[in-house]
Amino acid sequence: MELIELFLTFLKIGAFTFGGGYAMITMIQYETEQHGWLSQAELVDFVAVSESTPGPLAVNMATFVGIKTYGIIGAVIATLGIVLPSFVIILIIAKFFAHFRDSKAVEGIMTALKPAVVGMIGTAVLAIGRIVFFPNGMNFDCFVSVSFWVYSCLFVIMVILAFKKIHPILIILMSAAVGIAAGYGLGL
Predict the structure, then answer these.
(1) C-alpha span between 121 and 65 (Å, rounded)
(2) Among 42, 48, 87, 128, which has the minimal tally of Cβ within 10 Å of its Cβ?
(3) What is the pLDDT of residues 50-79, one digit of tens each?
(4) In terms of C-beta distances under 8 Å and separation of at least 24 residues, what long-range contacts does 92-97 make, across chains too?
(5) Cβ(60)–Cβ(50) under 8 Å?
(6) pLDDT(45) > 80
(7) pLDDT band of 187, cuts 50, 70, 90
(8) Is 13 within 8 Å of 31 (Cβ atoms)?
(9) How far apart are CA 14 and CA 92, in angstroms?
């Protein structure tokens, strides 16, 4: 019964989120917390690992949640659940694309979905940012902690590098190196 619940949960996530993996983070966070599958800290770790491994973020997240909760079979079930809706939708779109190509209704739907997707991504950024920068809630103590300032500086540097068009792999490697050095040097 738990495997069915895992499958249906990720099927729902796959079917009702548009905009890719980042837009799914908010829904994955909500569902995994509701079911007790992940803590907020584990979710942030899973996002980091999912971003560091090949493949789509949402598929990696589903696989990690599945393996953590029910082992290999859980990984297969959760992954199948998250990819099945997209697979079916793409098959349907491919079959009827010529009929929908010039449809004003389809154009309107796609136009309306764009701000919703940006909102979902923004919500994920804020939720994960809160967990990373303010793990014990927002209070004065967080602003005097060394880890807050190290993470904040690292974040600003990486944003600057991203806008300077530094290759994302280099940014990831630099972030990892600085994070390791800060973790060992400062006991973060």
Answers:
(1) 20
(2) 87
(3) 877 777 888 888 999 999 999 999 999 999
(4) none
(5) yes
(6) yes
(7) low
(8) yes
(9) 16
* Number of neighbours of residue 57 by Cβ within 10 angstroms: 19
CB–CB of 63/73 below 8 Å?
Answer: no
Beta strands in 119-168 (DSSP E): none
pLDDT of residue 114: 81
Q: Spell out the domain ranges in the chain.
A: 2-133, 137-188
Task: Give dist(CA 28, CA 19) in Å, integer.
Answer: 14
**pTM exceeds 0.85 for this model:** no
Spell 97-121 as b/e; 16+ CB within 10 A means b. Answer: eeeeeeeeeeeeeeeeeeeeeeebb
- Which tokens is 64 given? 């990690």
CA atoms within 13 A on the CB side of 38: 24
